[in-house]
């Protein structure tokens, strides 16, 4: 739901879903995620044709699609946050007033921001260590492991930015409610 839309929680209470909406970074992430998904579909389709028609295999489909799945997962998190698509504990929110609901959402986003920042930091450290050590996947492609690991770090950093935008949007809504 977009910013300001209400839904009924089953008890007749309207719960406002506040989302910042996608910005240029989320649009770019969504576009890259879409490209990765299309590449997965094409690669899997090609693998199916090669196996069924020619009796062979590309031998890289599992590995490449795994990396693309990681990219889709991590790059799409900021998009989901910007659209307000993550699950919320509406059972609790339904019993709170509008102001308390917004405060609770800001507190939850702050906790998510701390956790996401820690994960971004650790994944970035992992990618940097893999790059320095020249770690590669133990597969025929020998993919440098820093490539998928850096996408994970970028995705988490983008989620942190999206959470900051959401918190700012919710703080503005809270100021409107308070006045």
Label the overall shape. elongated
* Uncertain residue segments: 1-13
Q: Main β-sheet: number of strands, strand sense, barrel status?
A: 2 strands, antiparallel
Computed over alpha carbons, the radius of gyration is 21 Å
SS content category: mainly alpha
Number of strand segments: 2
Q: Please bin the fraction of helical residues.
A: over 70%
Oligomer: single chain
Supply the key terms.
179 residues, single chain, two-stranded antiparallel sheet, elongated, disordered N terminus, mainly alpha, 4% strand
Structural notes for this entry:
By secondary structure, this protein is mostly helical. It contains five helices and two strands, in the order ββααααα. The chain has one domain. A two-stranded antiparallel ribbon has the order 1-2. α1 runs antiparallel to α2 and α4 runs antiparallel to α5. The chain is elongated, with a radius of gyration of 21 Å. The two termini are 25 Å apart.
In short:
This protein is mainly α and 179 residues long.
What is the strand and helix layout of this fold?
Elements: E1 5-8, E2 14-17, H1 24-54, H2 61-82, H3 90-93, H4 98-133, H5 146-178
Antiparallel strand pairs: 1-2
Helix pairs in contact: 1-2, 2-5, 4-5
């Amino acid at each position: 739901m977009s910013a300001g839309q209400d839904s009924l929680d089953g008890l007749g209470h309207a719960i406002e879903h506040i989302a910042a909406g996608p910005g240029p970074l989320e649009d770019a992430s969504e576009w890259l995620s879409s490209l990765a998904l299309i590449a997965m579909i094409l690669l899997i389709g090609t693998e199916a044709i090669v196996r069924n028609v020619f009796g062979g295999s590309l031998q890289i489909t599992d590995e490449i699609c795994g990396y693309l799945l990681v990219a889709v997962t991590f790059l799409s998190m900021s998009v989901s946050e910007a659209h307000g698509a993550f699950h919320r504990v509406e059972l609790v929110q339904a019993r709170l007033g509008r102001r308390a609901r917004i405060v609770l959402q800001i507190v939850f986003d702050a906790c998510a921001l701390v956790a996401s920042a820690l994960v971004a930091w650790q994944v970035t450290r992992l990618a940097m260590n893999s790059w320095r050590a020249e770690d590669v996947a133990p597969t025929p492609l020998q993919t440098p492991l820093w490539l998928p690991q850096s996408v994970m770090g970028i995705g988490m950093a983008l989620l942190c930015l999206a959470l900051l935008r959401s918190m700012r949007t919710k703080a503005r809504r809270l100021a409107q409610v308070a006045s």
